[in-house]
Each structure stands twice: as C-alpha cells, then as structure tokens.
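User: Predict the complex with hypoxanthine.
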Amino acid sequence: MKNSLHDFIQGLPKAELHLHIEGSLEPEMMFALALRNGIALPYASVDELRAAYEFGDLQSFLDLYYAGAAVLQTEQDFYDLTMAYVQRALTDNVRHVELFFDPQTHTLRGIAMSTVFAGIARALRQARAENDFSGSMIMCFLRHLSEQDAFDTLDAALILREQYADLWIGIGLDSGEVGNPPEKFSQVFARAHALGFHVVAHAGEEGPPAYIHSALDVLNVERIDHGVRAEEDGVLMQKLIRMQMPLTVCPLSNLKLCVVTDLRQHNLARMLRAGVCVTVNSDDPAYFGGYLNANFSASAEALGLNRTELAQLAKNSFCASFAMPEQKQIWLDELVAYVDGYLAE
Ligand code: HPA
Ligand code: ZN
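Assistant: Here is the predicted structure with hypoxanthine placed in the model:
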C-alpha cells in the first residue's frame, strides 16, 4: 500500500488555515475538563455525547459547540486543548496552522481574555520550539453579537497585543452567518485593518454569494472562509479566480452541517479545476469526524482528486498563509521535493 493515495496525503507537507481551536475539543477531553473543573455535563458518557453530534445545519452545531466550550476555564485548559490539536496536526504532517479562537465565547462566561491568550500561546510557542511547526492566532468576532461587542472585544485584546505580537496576526468573523452579513462589522474591520491585522471572514457557507461580495468589498478580507456558495454566482467566481482569492474550504464540515448532502457533490474539485485558490481544512475536527488528512482523504476518494491536484491543494495552503515569503518558499521547496521523490519511486 506504499503508493496509496492515503500514504501520499500522509506525507504531504501542508498548512491548516481554517481551524477553530474550540472545535478541536474532543469528547474525552470535554469530560476530563468537566471533571477537573467540577462542571456537570448533560451527557452520561463520551459515547452519548458523540452520539449527539448529528447536525441539521450550522446553528444546531453551534448550540453544542458553545455549550461544550464551557468546560474551558483555566489557562491550563486552553493549553491542553491547543497542545492536543498540535499533536494531532503533527501526525498529519501539518507544518503551520493559523488557528481561530472565539474570545467572546469565554469572556461572556467570566473567563479573562488574558487566560484564553495565555493558554493557547504557551502551547503554540512550545510547539514552535520543539518541532518543525509554526502556529499563529486569528481572533474571531461572533457575528450573532453586535458590532459594539466586537469593538469591546478588540479593545480588551489590544492590551495584550505586544505580549503576543509573535502569534496574534489576524481578525476573523464566525458563528451564525445568515442574517448577520459582513457589512454589520464594517467599522470594526476597518479598525482592525488600520491596526495592521490580517483580516478574514466566514462567508458563503450557509449565506448567499452576496455575503462573499461584501466580505471582499466592504471588509477587504484577504481570505474567504468556506466560500462554497460562490459557485452560484458566475461573476463572483471569475473575480475569485482573477484575484486568486483563497477559499478555506472544509469538506467534512460541509457534509456534517448539510451544506452538501453527499461529498461526491462537493464543489471543491470543480472550483480547483476552474482555477480558484481553494484549500482544504478541518474547521471543527472533534465535531465533524476528521482532522486535516481525513478531509484530504475523504475528498480525494469522493471527488477523484489525483496526486497533482492534492499537491496543488497543499501548495495553495502555504501560498494562502500569512507566513513570510522566505518561509513559504522553504515549505514550497519541501513540497516539490516530496512530490518529485514520490513520483520517481
Ligand atoms: N461556521 C461558522 N462559525 C463557526 C464554525 C463554522 O463552520 N465553526 C465554529 N464556528
Ligand atoms: Zn469555521
């Protein structure tokens, strides 16, 4: 089986650009942290909790996801959560992650902003020191809350900016999309831009192509998270191709949240073949049934992606990252060497 597609995917160096760290909270860890922190969970066992992971849409997932995050209380909890993800990512030959975190999910429960930053940062710095791995942080605003709440969150986090200047690189926008269009956050994104942050936003997961247009034109984002509904708008598709605007696509997430009913109908391959800069990501792997390589493998199988296309997806993940050009070149050289070596066998 040396030459199986799975082995090829396993060895591919890659970056993950759409990963909610709270969405990597595995049921086992949720139970362990609940016990450690004296929190009662409304489930009798890990199996019972996992069995509840049947979602009809984004909101039905978000309800469980926010409830589950309540077990995260201390700096150590955020460290453990992040370190568990890093270990899993290393297994998948992920070289770089730009992870999302949702401080409002925690500050609303009385957890200090500094606790969230400190735990995630300690794990990422340790991972960087001990492995050929880098990680950075993108702070997301919850779009079902007000723009004022986002401003307050940004202000509270800015106090910590200098302390985490090596890690905190960007601002994102997530949570319930429909009814919360990007333009609701135009002022706070303008401020984030002015402060020198990279900016990204979820758009076109459940929301219409118009939300992708406004994420681009009003929020001036540098990547679109999901973006799969772009295909409904031919003009938008041409624009994405012309701009080489990266889409951070999450195939197993789209399947679990019923954005597609069958992975064989997913537009990842069509968009890739049309020339869109698509990347593959895991979104909330503890909830959606797979980390990064599982997303690559399931997509390859369902959509008939060949090795050249899989390598293109890995290449896109490095190119679309916010890493320094010299670092990107190192990864790309490594990727080329890997692919050439594999094909020569
Ligand atoms: N969409 C929107 N918000 C989210 C997601 C998602 O896929 N995952 C975690 N928060
Ligand atoms: Zn997401």
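The chain has one domain: 5-344.
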